[in-house]
Design brief:
The chain is α/β, with parallel strands linked by helices. About 40% of the residues lie in helices and about 15% in strands. The protein has an eight-stranded mixed beta sheet with strand order 3-4-2-5-1-6-7-8, with helices on both faces. Strand 6, helix 6 (about 145-160) and strand 7 (about 165-175) form a beta-alpha-beta unit.
Length: about 250
């Protein structure tokens, strides 16, 4: 039975979509059968981070409406074992029936090793239906006060929803930021109240890869790409040390 993992954040701009895409690519590159679902209804961007923006992937709403089957999810052109269901752009989150989305994920678990859901940022409807049926939830935050506060509120909301396997990923870390704020990763964990699952350094290759319509891991194996590889291996149950930020 496969795992469903939701990537979420308390606010936009944390790099949630980039991390979701890169971790999915890493899992697929290491032989796992992976489905990505963009749950940001009306504002899809996961295809860009996956290097699939020039394709016309079907949406998960098309599968829910039986216009297409799950087996027709769009395969990645360069990375075997990776498929995408994009978000519908002509619907609103409140039109998605939670029960139907949950039933889809039950089918997904039977056919894929991992399903990675890119949730809508914030606590809108898209956040709720993406998180409600996830087995594990990864909250993405950046080392700034607004992101930390919003990530803490997100963690509180997830706990109220009865979710228990919730962990933190800190993105866009630089030594200069920690020196300027006089903070450490431990301070961030204390602020948000979640155990740490991974750290990802600031990396200009993220923007360069998206501009070139290429997955990050096919452009570099360093910095952010390496941080996401470590996260992917932890999801598979491996013991991997945290990345050292230099």
């Amino acid at each position: 039975m496969g795992q469903v993992i939701a990537f979420t954040s308390g606010k936009g701009g944390t790099g949630k979509t980039t991390i979701c895409a890169a971790v999915a690519c890493c899992l697929a590159a290491e032989g796992c059968k992976v489905l990505c679902i963009d749950a940001d209804v009306g504002l899809r961007n996961l295809d860009i981070s996956l290097g699939m923006r020039e394709l016309a992937p079907i949406s998960f709403a098309d599968v829910l409406a039986d216009r297409y089957s799950l087996s027709e999810a769009t395969p990645h052109p360069d990375i075997p074992n990776l498929w995408l269901l994009t978000a519908p752009v002509a619907e609103k989150p409140e039109t998605i029936r939670f029960q139907d989305f949950g039933a889809l994920l039950e089918t997904v678990r039977a056919h894929f090793d991992f399903c990675l859901i890119d949730s809508a940022a914030g606590l809108r409807d898209g956040f709720h239906f993406a998180s409600s049926y996830a087995d594990r939830i990864l909250v993405i935050a950046t080392p700034d006060p607004a992101s930390l506060r919003d990530a803490g509120e997100t963690a509180d909301q997830l706990s109220l929803m009865g979710k228990h396997d919730i962990k933190l990923i800190v993105n866009r870390i630089t030594p200069a930021i920690f020196r300027a704020l006089d903070w450490t990763v431990d301070d961030m964990m204390d602020e948000i109240g979640l155990p740490l699952f991974g750290i990802v350094p600031e990396d200009p290759n993220v923007v360069l890869a998206a501009s070139a319509n290429r997955p990050l891991i096919l452009c570099t194996d360093r910095r952010a790409s390496l941080g996401c590889l470590h996260i992917a291996r932890r999801l598979r149950g491996e013991k991997v040390p945290l990345l050292r930020i230099r």
